[in-house]
Specification:
By secondary structure, the chain is mostly helical. It has 2 domains: 233 residues, no CATH class; 261 residues, no CATH class. It is built from 24 helices and no strands. Helix 2 packs antiparallel against helix 3, helix 3 packs antiparallel against helix 17 and helix 5 crosses helix 17. It is globular and about 70 Å long.
């Protein structure tokens, strides 16, 4: 083969079916980065972050693991960070990795029950505003006790189930026929408009559920990983953390749900898409078919999955073990008592989460670059120059802005460590340290809904199998999240600066929380 032919073949294979402009952009990144790093390492660090965000934004052109991974490998090769630092980040986040590997696969084995319950919910609640609120409230409640990724995995499993049922029927097949729901070539022409509307409907529900995880996740110390880190830094238990956060979490929840009603009522930001009547008929037929063909074996499976679901919530709420290990327990119990014994059937459950797990490790490499190149240091130093309520406001906004472009767990960890160091050095009072801890928690959880990179649950949704099926792109997510971003940021900021100090003093006066005593940590009635 001629060299030109070999070169052309290599270029054709590079990033596969991705558009030429996308391939050339990634190649340009690879050439520009070393030149910038030699002259301006700090600038090169920010350039890498922007490039990685670009790969996430173009997730529907090419899965971000490939171009993002190339950029991460190049960064390590150039010395922007080291493999030891990447390994440290992976080790520090091993619970999240295990969560993705085991918990998401565990949800796969209880999806029969989930589909059964959610189909009834979808068909019983005819109002679009009602079903949107139901998904948002359910996600918020579950995320306060479970992990947001687990909640999103549940909703994704349900959405894929709904989508595949209608896609199969609209392609002229029966409920039991084998079918590939990723391609539209078998669709009848009359079904296409209904399918497009159904995609819009599912996009609405998934975005409401995703925002719900942020509304619930901010409220408790187990809602998001960084909450746990912040709670440990200030030595608060579950009850005290929830009590101190309620000055922010309750107003945010109320206004978040009001936003859901407004965007649905007035069909703003691509919301307000109703479930097409043809799709409803198919789902009603499917429900009737499912009930009709239920055997004693099927009924026992549903009961077993129900017991496992309750056990899952209890174990996660009481923190009996790390989330990943509880997920492994779910896999073992569900496969054992539902009779799934084939290795390939079990392996199939892991296919959804493993690509995202690999992408997350690449993301940790980018976080390692952020740490080693001190990208956030000037911002943190600037924030700590302010005092009092203004410091609360600036810290909330700075956390929010950085969480939009980076990982909110990383941002929260960096800020709480810096603020704790300032308190230990005597630069701020204990009361101000506690206020700042709450501001950090709110800042990392609320404005970060703006982009998929800010919230791991949003990133998981963007890179999941459902996203291309319902045409959910990065920019579509940013656009649909925009009303929530604006409302949550404003309400969160006002609550942090004005309501939080007043409510905290009221709780002190009532004796529900007490001032810090060295050696004893924080305390409250439920501590």
């Amino acid at each position: 083969m001629k060299p030109s032919g070999m070169a052309l073949g290599l270029y054709t294979n590079f990033l596969g079916q991705s558009p030429n402009w996308y391939k050339l952009t990634i190649i340009a990144f690879m050439f520009i980065n070393p030149l910038v790093f030699i002259n301006h390492p700090y600038l090169a660090g920010w350039l890498l972050v922007i490039e990685f965000i670009f790969t996430l934004a173009m997730a529907l052109k090419c899965y971000p693991l490939l171009p993002g991974g190339l950029l991460a490998i190049q960064a390590i090769a150039m010395g922007m960070t080291t493999t030891d630092k990447v390994m440290h980040e992976v080790s520090a986040n091993i619970e999240v990795v295990l969560l993705l590997v085991f918990m998401v696969a565990g949800i796969h084995f209880v999806k029969d029950l989930l589909l059964f319950v959610f189909t009834k919910l979808l068909l019983k609640v005819k109002s679009k505003i009602g079903i949107s609120l139901a998904f948002c409230i359910m996600s918020a409640f579950l995320s306060a006790f479970l992990d947001a990724l687990t909640v999103v995995a549940v909703v994704i499993a349900v959405a894929v189930g709904f989508y595949s049922i209608y896609h199969k029927v609209s392609s002229g097949k029966g409920f039991v026929d084998a079918h590939d729901h990723t391609g539209d070539h078998d669709l009848h022409e009359l079904s296409r408009q209904n399918l497009d509307d159904f995609r819009g409907f599912l996009r609405n529900l998934l975005m409401h559920a995703g925002v719900g995880t942020a509304l619930g996740g901010v409220a408790t110390m187990v809602g998001e990983p960084q909450n746990l880190i912040i709670a440990e830094a200030v030595e608060w238990g579950f009850a005290e953390f929830a009590l101190r956060m309620c000055a922010i979490s309750l107003p945010v929840l109320i206004f978040g749900l009001l936003t859901t009603i407004v965007v649905e009522k007035f069909k703003l930001f691509d919301f307000g898409v109703k479930l097409p009547s043809a799709v409803r008929e198919v789902l009603e037929s499917y429900e009737a078919y499912q009930i009709q063909k239920l055997t004693p074996s099927d009924i026992s499976k549903l009961w077993v999955q129900g017991v496992i679901a309750v056990l899952l919530i209890v174990c996660l709420s009481l923190h009996i073990a790390s989330v990943g290990l509880i997920g492994l327990m779910v896999i073992i119990l569900a496969t054992t008592f539902c009779g799934v014994t084939d290795e390939h059937a079990i392996g199939n459950a892991f296919k959804e989460a493993l690509p995202f797990t690999a992408l997350l490790v690449v993301f940790f490499a980018v976080v390692a670059v952020i740490i080693d190149q001190h990208l956030f240091t000037p911002i943190i130093s600037w924030v700590l120059t302010f005092d009092g309520q203004l410091q609360l406001a600036v810290l909330f906004l700075a956390n929010g802005a950085l969480s939009m472009v980076s990982d909110n767990v990383f941002v929260g960890t960096v800020y709480i460590n810096e603020v704790k160091a300032a308190w230990e050095a005597g630069n701020i009072s204990r009361e101000q340290f506690e206020m700042l801890a709450i501001a950090i928690n709110a800042g990392t959880n609320l404005p970060s809904v703006a982009t998929p990179n800010g919230q791991a649950a949003f990133l998981f949704l963007l890179t999941s199998a459902i996203a291309p099926l319902i045409r959910l792109s990065y920019m579509k997510m940013v656009w649909m999240a925009l009303p929530y971003t604006i409302v949550l940021t404003i309400v969160g900021l006002v609550s942090t600066v004005f309501i939080l100090p007043e409510i905290t003093h009221y709780f002190y006066d009532m004796g529900w929380i007490h001032h810090y005593v060295p050696g004893l940590g924080g305390s409250s009635g439920g501590h």
